[in-house]
């Protein structure tokens, strides 16, 4: 009994001491923050509202989680009541895209998918005021009429150089207005077996398993079938219903496309022999001669017209925005298809023509409900034939010998693993030859350290990502409606910490207002100054200059209008 | 007996309807909706709406429930959102893989458990007994993913005796059941995960068997047999073990029922394409039809095996009757 009592007393004393310390700590910071303003509290502006930073769960994205904690702490040091609230990704999306638009700020990212190399996504979709309503991609609720005009103009400009000028100008405005703060981009760290294969191609935003590597890769030994490891599942083989990224990355090797983006991301006529922009809203595409589908039937202009119309009629969600600009499609001669657009649409060639697969009309015209069709024996005209798709296990493809472009491997297997650990073991044992996803940082390190020469046969590749992770702010709300506050915020993000510590240096720095990152060489405007220095003192100065004040308790107050 | 059986069957059906209802609403109270996972957030809101319609999620919750329960009455679980195929097809495919793995593990665990347990009770107090208990408890308490990783490290990477993961060598195997499961390649892939699962499950039958043996061994008829001068091994297996087996049988029947959910960790470590893994991803993807279907089948299976266990009890032990 006595003992327990003593314990209790100790506990009470400890708690009391602890509380005293915390209380003192508060007093200290308050004393420091009190910048000695002479104005009585009640004559100052409103208190800066309490801010909540929504972020991802640590297991989903550790860097975003940590960074949002850091920024919240920086704000606290400045006298703003800020906290970070981690949540499940689906819930976060619900909040950001929901009708209530009820949030202050958040951290999230845009992945660098290949169609996003076209600047329309990052300029128009996520910054135009048309998309600032509920469900729109402009989740920062950024509205600037001057910017909107340019964002619209670049979309209509069919001349690529003139369009580039407009995109540069748009980036200048964004860098000035700072609607969001880009924190970092991840490098795409991947690996393949260099003892068995050579001539892989690394594409920004896509990595090693892109639409070119299977064409270009050459076997060095008698292992002529490439095994590619994946750690995510593929859904199905129907181009009209497949919505998983890796479903698509495989489907585009089974089904051919009129245009493919070259490894340097320029549109290249592929199943098309050439295209001709007749005028701003008329594009003629000449089909390549002598192509056949995997079942031996010839590929004709009817197939192309049918495919595009099927995608339009079936309202395929994934491609909606690429297809809505199409008004009509006509066959002008045996080899030529004419696309009439509703209005000029600059991404038509880079996105629309480069995305829609050519389906065999003789098969699909007889299918009653194309979107529900499982398409187990997918027949396309692409470089690879589907041999077998075993849900959750593997996709087996073999070379299509009648393809117009030579392929050096006999086929490839896309193997699905349950965890990256399993893939690493399989890589070590030589059972798989390439990864299709970005290695987790610890595996990158393991391969780099190459302990005992275990990974001698692996080549580590680094690619730049055109996607980025950022802090978004709700510009409909105070204090984020104040541009100076956003600029000050950009000084509270430790960009080097994100890159050097959290990402082990595998990535690129961000900056306030950065939208098209350097990796997207052609469209990135290198001459725009962005706010990319971490400097909390400077942040305080900017805020003071903008009329923010600190009251006797050190709390930040809004400027008086 | 038959009456009792029918009555239980009827109660079971009611329970399944109840459980299905609970599962239905449980999934729909989960935050987030299926469109968040299947498509990129960048799709326009109209497209999201279309997708919801395609999935039949645009109606009111009550309307959705009516569709769900009438379909269920026809044993139709709907189409998986993700795979765009009937959920039941996916479940069947995955269930085969899981059951083969779990039953192999069970055969290992129960053979080792029954004989080991009986023998341990017989040699009570010996050093071998304490070693046996310790070993079985170590495997029971060690995280299966860790044991799995160690096994892979040792048997696959160091010794290269067994493949490290998957159900077959990449690119082999075909469509039919025989091509998929009845071959040496499959067997080689099965051994490691089955062993890890088996070692994990071994403690239950072993300790139950040991305890119930100890009880049986204090019975008069064992003493009687001894007094008659019957051989030790004869007493152990003919007289004691047979009677001690009863609780182990119950545990075994329940095990089968519960096993179809699989051992998720083992399936993940060995990249085994089983139902457990599929359920986890189905839930995170909000693939309602697939997740619902799997859970309903699992709960039905557990209830059914419970019933079987009760029936077996009456058959094995004449003292128990249900009349």
Automatic annotation (TrEMBL), chain A:
First and last residue of the signal peptide: 1-25
InterPro entries: SBP_5, SBP_5_dom
Alphabetized Gene3D superfamilies for the sequence: Dipeptide-binding Protein, Domain 3 (3.10.105.10), Periplasmic binding protein-like II (3.40.190.10)
UniProt cross-references to CDD domains, sorted A to Z: PBP2_NikA_DppA_OppA_like
Residue stretches in coiled coil: none
GO molecular function: peptide transmembrane transporter activity
Biological process according to GO: peptide transport
Residue ranges constituting the Solute-binding protein family domain according to the UniProt record: 266-556
Alphabetized UniProt keyword annotations: Signal
Protein known as: ABC transporter substrate-binding protein
Organism (species): Isachenkonia alkalipeptolytica
High-level lineage: Bacteria, Bacillati, Bacillota, Clostridia, Eubacteriales
